[in-house]
Amino acid sequence: MKELRMSGNDIRENLAAAGCDHKFIECFAVVREKKELSEQLELLMSHRVRLLKELHEIQIKIDRLDYLIFKLKK
């Protein structure tokens, strides 16, 4: 596996922009310092799964609103 070649600040900014909280970012930094690539990937994938779950939950809400809009226009 390749090492992530970004500065620590760039990684922190990217994680924050991806919605990671301070605790997650600090945990990732510790794992990165140990050069545990598999753990880094696991952390990133777990956050991705959480975001995808949120996305699906929001999509359900949008679908329900779309249904109400459709019914009102009918």
Number of H- or I-type helical stretches: 3
| Cα-to-Cα separation, first versus last residue | 56 Å
Mean pLDDT: 94
The secondary-structure class comes to: mainly alpha
Overall number of strands:
0
- Name the beta content range: under 5%
Helix content range: over 70%
Shape summary: elongated
Rg on CA atoms, Å: 18 Å
Q: Provide the succession of SSEs.
A: HHH
Report on the biggest sheet.
none
Low-confidence stretches: none
Report what the structure shows:
There is one protein chain. The model has no long low-confidence stretch (mean pLDDT 94). α2 (22-33) runs antiparallel to α3 (37-73). It is elongated and about 60 Å long. It is built from three helices and no strands. The protein starts with 7 loop residues before the first helix and ends with a helix. The chain is an all-alpha fold and 74 residues long.
